[in-house]
Specification:
single chain; 211 residues; alpha+beta; four-stranded antiparallel β-sheet; 32% helix
């Protein structure tokens, strides 16, 4: 069993610390004495929001165990995904996943386990988020809703472990390693939508034989 947690880039810490820091400077040096209580309250509010967001984001965890993957946030929901529910052609790695983040509005979708300035990452397609995992036939992978994206410096190791696990669970070698030669995925393109659609399984219309 191996458990991974995302690394918080310094840029993200500074980005979130900037608003409360500016308010603190305003409180100490610019605000009138009668306004300092207001600036002080805003400083505390923004500091709590920034710290809460960082703590929640950093609680992301990805665990590979004998029967599948557990991925989610400890301060939230953690999904269990059997290896039989992972599409082998969707396993991919990235050298700079920050290219899918909107630079004009640098916020990360809560379903993604990355930070604004994360670099290496791994992704794959599992079952729909609302699917129930139980004994018997595992739920099928669903592109779009089942897309999992996790930032980790060990992305290549995770991808290799996933492929070896699929192989051990009966997936033919040529299928289990079908996507190995296409990683890391090149997130090229001028448009943000184009870069995101380059991720296998991100779009609900993705097909394994699509380029």
């Amino acid at each position: 069993m191996s458990t991974l947690r995302p690394r918080i880039p310094l840029y993200d810490v500074c980005y979130l610390a900037l608003p409360p820091a500016c308010l603190l400077v305003g409180t100490l040096f610019m605000a009138d004495p009668e306004e300092r209580w207001l600036f002080g309250g805003l400083t505390l509010l923004f500091a709590l929001l920034s710290a809460g967001w960082l703590t929640w984001s950093a609680s992301a965890v990805l665990t590979l165990h004998r029967h599948g993957v557990r991925v989610g946030r400890r301060l939230g929901r953690v999904r269990s995904i059997p290896y039989g529910s992972i599409h082998p052609a969707s396993i991919a790695t990235y050298a700079d996943i920050s290219r899918i983040v909107n630079s004009a509005r640098p916020l990360v979708w809560p379903r993604w386990f990355i930070f604004v300035n994360s670099k290496e990452a791994v992704s794959f397609v599992g079952p729909a988020r609302a699917s129930v995992v139980g004994p018997g036939q595992p739920p099928p992978p669903v592109a779009g809703d089942g897309f999992v994206l996790f930032a980790t410096p060990d992305a290549d190791v995770v991808a290799d472990e996933l492929r070896r696990a699929l192989l051990a669970h009966g997936v033919p070698r040529e299928q289990a390693y079908a996507s190995a030669g296409r990683s890391p995925v090149d997130l090229a393109g001028v448009l943000l939508t184009t870069r995101r659609q380059a991720m296998p399984g991100y779009d609900s219309g993705w097909r394994p034989d699509a380029p």
